[in-house]
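Dear Dr. H.,

I hope your travels went smoothly. While you were away I took the liberty of generating a structure for the chain from your last submission, since the lab meeting agenda had it listed for discussion. I wanted you to have the full record in hand beforehand rather than looking at slides cold. The sequence, exactly as received, is reproduced here:
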Amino acid sequence: MARGRLLQPRPAECVIDGRKFMQKTYQENTCSDECWAENRRRRWEYLRLTEGCARCKLVKPLTEYTGPTTPYCKDCFNKDRRDRFTAADYRLQNLKKYKMTPETFDALLETQDGRCAICKTDDPGGRHGEWHVDHDHDCCPGSRTCGACVRGLLCQNCNVFIGNAKDDPVRLRAAADYIERPRQPALFLVA
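The corresponding predicted structure, in token form, is as follows:
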């Protein structure tokens, strides 16, 4: 006999919506997958409001948790991620994603004189202080590349800039034209 199984299914009442169903195990107390999920959500909600965060033990509002069934508050969750994900991890992940070795990365940075390929700053910026590998999204549309379409290394600001422009040269030229255009007279000045 399987552990927890009833010899004969017996009638039971769902704890969520009160519908009748045939109980197959001693622990079964819901009639459907939807009711099971709702029951689970309610249990986690109760635990968060009575016991608090599993790490810091502080009782916080449910909006301070990353999801309906996560045991950690947002502060503890983010601190844990920051502690586990170092700049070295970020660099290794980046190199693997773009099929580069540390030597090819360093050689590419050397060809750029240790500077951003666009703005020529020597500060990569960003949370990890690492250069961003830029690749041709027409060749490899996802985040991983074939390795042959790498264009260069960019600082955080330039990477975000061309990413927001969707790597579209027309859009980037239009942005440059817009910035160089003479100012329009103020139409909305309040007298």
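Two observations you may find useful: The chain has a mean pLDDT of 85. The beta strands are 5-13, 20-25, 132-135, 150-154.

With kind regards,
E. W.
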